[in-house]
Please model this.
Amino acid sequence: MVSFPHLLHMPITLPAIIRSVRPFLFGLLLFLTGLLASCGDDNVSRRYGGLPSAFGKANKLTVIADSTWWANGLGDSVDFTMGAPFLILPAPEPLYDLTHFSYKDLEANAARRELRTYLVIGHAGLQGTPLDDMIRQDLGDTLLSGGQPWLVRQVRNRWALGQLLFYIYGQDEAAVYQAIADRGPALLSRIREHDQPILESQTYAAKENLPLTRQVRERTGLSFRIPGEFVTALDQDSTLWLRKELKDISLSLLFRRIPYQSQDQFEKEGFRRLHDRMTAIVSSGLPEIPTRMVIDDHYLPMFFSPVTIGGQYAMEVRGLWRMHNDVMGGPFISCLILSPDERHLVLATGFVYGPGKSKREWMQQLEIILRSGKF
Model:
């Protein structure tokens, strides 16, 4: 039998009873408050004029536009820019997963107004429709002034907190297509900034592996924030190899510090020599055949982009890798970073192996890790 000896000798008085039940009453009050807040179609914040929090994953874009127009040209135009391939993967994956809603679709379900990222598109030829009325209510009735053919506006928290909306409006369909072509890259950059906090939280869901962060700094002179799930796979030939193994996906990080000799090391063939030398420690483990990881640019080229990491000049390189004498392969992202004294380079590479699996989000996580480098 379970007993509670601290209650056996308590004086049975009204103040004592009140003190004993006070924690229970307080907990009950919190429970009822939470229960009331969760009931009904609206939450407490809405009742008091507040907004719910937007929900949804990164890399998702909801397009609100006329259904007939979407099916007859607009969808292709938006997909060409916003759904362009993510660079660079062995099987094409879009930059953003697109979902189309008409105004009727939007009104049919309140949750459809609480997503994170929207692109609202209209033109003057649709004036008088519910969608055009909504755009004019949001942006003002005088949309195009001074003879401008189109406009692009950004609005935050239209229906929910943490929400980002872009409005594209034109004189006609042709003007809208021109606006998408002209401003599409800038919109992609803004959406990426909007998604960055979610991507970072996913990358560091298991916090940071501080011992590995220190180990990488000792090896390279740079501090990279290494997520908690990574472990040391191999430390050999001046190269440190870290791995994260999941059910269907394997993620790897490689780090190496090398002398800086010339600008040629940042060019295609110079980079290839540096990279293939570093990745030579990576093999598929076949006992009878020697294998090693190499760059594979036979069908798809490498893409070079100058960037700044830790305040220093760096070259970001994206491409594909394959296993020499084996069938393994996948995408990689590398950063070749010049040290502050310009005497050394740090080569940091992340690569993914997961046959038949989506790799876009994993490559984004590797990019976040490599961009975290600080001298």
